Queue: 4 jobs
Job 1
Amino acid sequence: MYVKRMKIGIGILMTLILLLAGRIILMDVLAAADSEIAKQVKSSGSNVPSNVLKVTACYSLMADRAAVRVSVEGKYKTDTMLYVPGKVTSVKDAAWNQAEKVGKDGRFFVSKKGTYSILVLDSKGNAKITTVSVKMEMRAVWIYFSEMQNQAESLAKWKKFIDTTYATCKRNYINTVILQVRPCADAMYPSDYFPWSFYAAGKAGKNPGFDPLAYAVEAAHEQGLSIQAWVNPYRVTMSTTKLSSLPKGSVARRWASSKGKKRNVLSVNGALYFNPARNAVQELVAKGVKEIVKKYDVDGIHLDDYFYPSLGTANNKKFDYREYISYAARQRKAGNSVKSLVGWRRSNVDSMVRKVYAAVKAVDKNCLFGISPAGNIDNLYSRTSYYSDVKKWMKNPGYIDYICPQLYWSFTQHVAPYKKLLDEWASLPRNKNVNLYIGLAGYRAGISLREAKALSDTGWAKSNTILKRQVQYGRKSGEVTGFFIFSYSTYENKNAKKEVKNMNKLFAR
């Protein structure tokens, strides 16, 4: 028995020795590899000025990690890009021995908040270090068409607007801007599918002589901001049904004037909309989004709450009802079951959402696609409006990367109080790859009692800590990982100053 135990003991000892030897050899190999990296870094000289090598970094949030995007401008070809956790300011720091390589697409991924240092070496041995502070919380602001009006009359004016806007965002701890680039079947960029927006040069269809979106994307990344392109999928006009109000090159005008495609554009409630039931419309929306992701280095595509217009009982069996009758007839002829009108309309929106998601991911799998629906879930499942099956989108893969309901009510609103609605959204089953963000009503901060009464929400006039408490409650839920502020004008509104200051005390941490 003693001899047997001795043999077992010797066997264990030999195994440990072999494992230790293997570990030493492996460490030697790694050390050699790291030494080559360190040698390359240390021989590169000083941290050169930006006119020789310029490096910027921003990040966007995925389901459980952050995607850090590194942008490089320089006179010479980029040779190496490395990153390490923590703040490292010298190219000779030993921390670079443990550096990881940035991906060929200029991205790397992290799962923890904190500061990360990035080192870029060019082919001439010039080095540049920059840092990025990653917060695992989305802090976004919507910049909508009205706020951009008349700002793109010239490149100089647009640059000033964008630079000032982004600087304000940075001061207020925002890390993502949601820029509206297609308000009404138009574009704030040169497009193969849509005419120039009225908000670009002050006249629909007029070329401003430069590309507003190109500069907006470039400037965002230079200032360390993530940027998402905000698109309205169906709206053609807001307050007119006159086709003559549309530019001659407008696809909506062409379709509405064509006998075979006339049903692609419909009139309801004094405005024009693309017909959600038509496959050509769904394809147009998807192609338009794909064009953006291909041409611009955007970090995401964003849709808001404008899907089907509010039809009410008066228009419920109008609008796209003719297409429903045709669909039902085809189904019956084929011996298939027929969806209800409500189910069919929801399936039309579902189809568009899936196509947009697929279009985004076909170009850039790391580009986000999210939707910001109205905040009252019951309204979304109305029989006469929206037709937005958010529960399906949140639960199943292939629809969205995030959902951001617009919870624009105070804690004391009697029909839709903030706490109740947030709890409802947080309780919905959600795919592991879908983040839940909350849209907050910055535009209501600091309003008067008269204004609050008109909104049936007097809570906004009785406190200057609502936004702060809404962020706190969202964080406390354990389900919410970010907040969107509607809209940028909140930061220019003197009456909202106290609310914003109190909210920023949380964001500054």
Job 2
Amino acid sequence: MSRPCRVPAHRTAHRTAFHTVSRGIFASARHFRRPVPFQPQHNLTRERRMRAGSGDVTWGAGRPVIRLAGAGLLGALGLALAPGAAQAQFSNPLFMPDPPSNGSADPGVSFLEGQYRVTSTAGPRVRTSPDLVNWKEEQPLFAPGGEPQWVRPDPRTGARRAGSPKIYELSDRADGPGRQYVLLFSAPHKDKGKGCIGRAVSNTPHSFRNAGRKSKAGPLECKDNGDFGLIDPALFVDHTRGGKHYLLYKRQLKDHRKKEMRRPSDIVIRPINTDVRRGLGSSTRLVVGNGKGEVGSVEAPTMVRHDGRYFLFYSVGLFSNDSYAVSVAVSRRDANRPTGGKFIKYRENPIYSGRGTGDFCGVGHQDVRKNPDGTWRLFAHANLRETNPAKPPDARNKCVKSRRDLVSETLRWDRRTSNPNFHWPSVSNGKPSGNGKTTGTFAPFMG
């Protein structure tokens, strides 16, 4: 009596996976002529998400995107899909605020709990999006009663506004148990009359409460080199040095709009404890605003590490005109550490600006981040350009100051040098892509 032939389990998995994927591919061909509206996978119901993972067709950038099997099935085949296979469409600016006067000035962009979270100067709420396409504005930046009372109130509205705010996740739980987040911001002090760095904490990436260095009611830092005011704080965590934390910010004169040309501003870095409150070390100057086209101003520091070197992205010029732009500098090889002294500016700066474009001007105050899928993105604010032909020629190309909108570009490390292991970064063609109408594509990642 013959026995039935047993097929090993691993061969059965390979065979099943092959037939499932094949059915998905060939069945999908029948749908190519039918324009299926694009829906990001994270918006699908569980049942439809399962169908999409078994061979359904979604649409992005005007072309079908075949979604094959899930990770386990592809693993059985020895295949892998790139993170974020589903594509979503976006255009610059990423969203149009309502009301229009509430723009995205000085944006801080974080990716926390599966969502992009955008904060901006004077913005009372946190905008969230899973894919840079679908945006919500529903979470307050400060909890009721949590606003910083040391901040000088706005003379028109009485509100205590936070400048250049950004959210970071804390590894230190010094302020209490549970998952914690810290908000860094700057604002004019009601008594000192100059800019100070503020700190607020929360167990969620919104609804923060002020928590200063010496007391919960005060700021994090106000004193640094005499009459300088402090703005544009940023946090850098060096995971190659045991997770050491650093605080960066811009130092400026009290009345910088009148005197900054005579005495340029600078950007400094200081060690700080992992609770981002204690252990604030001495300042090290990284760049000073005395370069060509910088108009005496450097601001909005963002530090990242790439290919073993430390890069400092910063903005130069005046935000209200075309002198505003994004530049970059790098740590010296003989002092390759965050506090190793003055950084070397890229000789082809700026790498991103609105100069020569017909739609945007005053482009800058960037934020740079590495996404979970390994790609890099640059975010910045951009003023819409005034192009009213009825105005005099000298007034047609000025920035519209009523609103600064959020734009985003892919950041690539592709500018070659004599060192094959070192590349400067570049951003598209150096100018904002799109004009409020042109659509780009972005592959969202889940989680």
Job 3
Amino acid sequence: MKKLLRLDKDGRWELGGIEFAIRERVGKPHNLIGRVSELEYLYTWADNIRQEISRSVAFLGRRKIGKSLILERLYNIIYSEHKGLIPFYYEFTEGTRSGREFYHDFVTRFYMQVVGYYTRDISWIRSAADFNTDADAETFMKDIGMHAVNHVNMRRITYFLCRHEGEWYYPRDLKRTMNLDIGDEALRGELALLHKYDLIEFSGGRYGGVFDRTLKKVLMKHYGDILGLPAEEFNAYFRTDNLLDYLQERIRQLELDLAEAEELRNTMSVLRGEHNDLKGHYYEREVLLRLIKAVIDGEGGVTDGIGVTEFDYTLNYHLSDGQEIDIVLEGKHTVVMAECKNYAPEYLHRITEKMVKKFADKARRLKEKHFPEKALRLIFFSRNGVEEKLKPVLRQHGIFLH
């Protein structure tokens, strides 16, 4: 994860990549300006905690000058970078209370934020940071328990239905057969959620499983979690995939009138474009995983000299002129930049000399501007290779082909 505390060219704080786990009292996040030295100091101090070299600090100042706001932004940045440092925010409110009351409040809000950090569910954190309401330990433990029970139930249900593919169950039959300790309404809600994400099937009020497709989705969901890919994009991928298969089958098997056939062809053309974009999107992540694996395994080659504890990466690195580099992998002394093409064999002619030159030019501009002291390595990844006539062009520009 790259550093999220950074200024744009106009000297305002960039907000890309920050998830606002705590609501900041400034209102809209872009309203926070300045405070550069304070935030830089505290960010470095927080980062050094992971190295076990930071000491406690007192952040002092008059009332209403923005101390709490700075800490809220620091909290949101640390939460979003997700490097293993768990932020904790606590306010001492006015009034009196017993030591026992303080202990329960403090500990409950602490564990709510820990749970929120690990589950990536900011509702826990926002509840913990709402000091206008009480933090009830009993309610918190009950919610945690129900969350864990429901998670186990959903996994059991998915596994059971997939193991019994071809059999269909009404919710009440499923509850009785599996001896589930769950209320009827909660069970219907979980089944609806599993069906919404297309992990199980629904027909005529009954539920069933399809093992092969479920396994495929579970594996791809795990693959996405490695890089924090949004779940919506997986939904879009499978939805597009299924529609393409459906339309291709219809056009191949049915006798359609010309108007309907033309409408379907147009729809399929749009879907094919979206599908190809998504395939390219996933191919970039596949390539990045291969590069990271090469660093971890010490394979050398294009990642030679990049240490496992000293690298950072960026997908779709945006340049100031609107262009982008697919992958930037930065080591201590070396920066690797990669272009990724997922063209089918029949479309390899679309990878042109002009495309290669454009990649080399923008990569070297980025290197000179942001990585002037580091050695540059250029890589061109193409799932199905390139035409023979293009290989001398790649060598001419000092680009490795993978």
Job 4
Amino acid sequence: MQPRNGSFALTLRPGYIYSLTTTSGQHKGTARPAPARPWPLPYRENFDEYPPGETPRLFADIGGAFGTAPCAGRPGNCLQQEVTEQPVRWTSINNYPLTVVGDPESWRNYQVDVDALLQQPGYVELDGRSPATQGRSQGFFSSPPGYHFRIDDQGAWSLYKQDVRSARSTLASGTASFGVGSWHRLGLRMRGDEITVSLDGRPLATVLDGTYRAGQVALQVSPWNRAQFDNLAVQELPAVGEGPQLGAVQPTLVQLAAPGDSAPISTTVTNPGQLPATAIDAQLQAPDGWTASTVSAPPEQLPGGQSAPLSWQLTAPSSATPGRYQATITVTYTEGNLRWIASTTIPVDLSIVPHAQMTAAATSWQPGFEPNLAIDDNPATFWHTEFSPVKAVPPQSITFDLGGNYDVSGLLYLPRQDGNPNGTITGYNVYASPDGTTFTKVASGTWPDDATQKSASFTTGAVRYIRLEGVQAHNDNVSAAEINIIGTPAP
């Protein structure tokens, strides 16, 4: 391309990137990345090779700022959390002080230990088996999934697991001696499904949990406090055996028409390992006040590669309140000198009109967010009123044909569960109709603007249609992940 009179013209195609240069010989690069390989263990880091103010290699700060600094009360350098106030946020989430290191896939069975010192009141955390998937809360990283060992300046400690939506489940807790300004050694041991936390070499608790099988190490500090870490060590632990696998549960949704009714629940347990499984225990944890009677118990021993049936009879007490409940199947066994665990939950509906026989219609919906998604038994999907190209503002309603006549006593409303509050109904009316033409208001009220399940109680005669009207909602949208109608067939 030759400039003429000091200028030139170039026609550019949309969607392409162009590079202009005065040299020649350019071509597409031929470099190839090295093949991926597991990060070998053991791994140790004492931070002494770095001058103060450096970020140690292989560490990735997710929140706060972790850099090397002279150790408090001991020689050498440590890793110190430096940020002491909330930075300017670029999302709606607080990215609290957190740094990660390690292999999210090959680090499976290991013990991680680290020295920790609180420089002011607050807490420190040692986390393990944190997978590469980011912790998601309202759309961005807040705290990693995996196993968390937290202890504060008062000595209150907890071992908890956290999922990708930042929902936490405490596995163990207690008190120990910790304080401010003194060094202590935190330990987190993950071998198979056995999870152990220790303080200064003394075990605090051992629990069974099979949620996370591999992941990185993380260090966390309470916002926005200073704390120091030193002598991080990760040691591989040999583990022989595999945890139990549960087959499909039948039914996938337990439906009981009235209090006092019962239903069978069945599944299978498989030993996927090569060694025989022994000391097998299988339990159905029923809702409080309910009973679960064993029909098919597990065998005393289950050879590798084989399966066995499990079944129970679940019974609701005659005094049970209609609504949606949950039962949990838990199986544990010993294989390779380790205890292993598997569990699954089953929704249980008591006096809930079955979604399979219902249909839904609405005054508005956005394509891809149709009314039937509010009755598909999947909290991850949801009905949403139109927001593009025209926004449908409240009041907006969704109407259900129950598929038959019911004496209805209430409804359960679950807002969308993806972390986005848009459409959460905060002011509502409920209407009932026997014919789908003439509707009578049977309830009205307000609900909190959050993602928890809401309820409305009322009574009707024999009706076939229920309408929920959102008169006020978050950001002037209306949405629903799941709506359940409480009722019994009308005589």
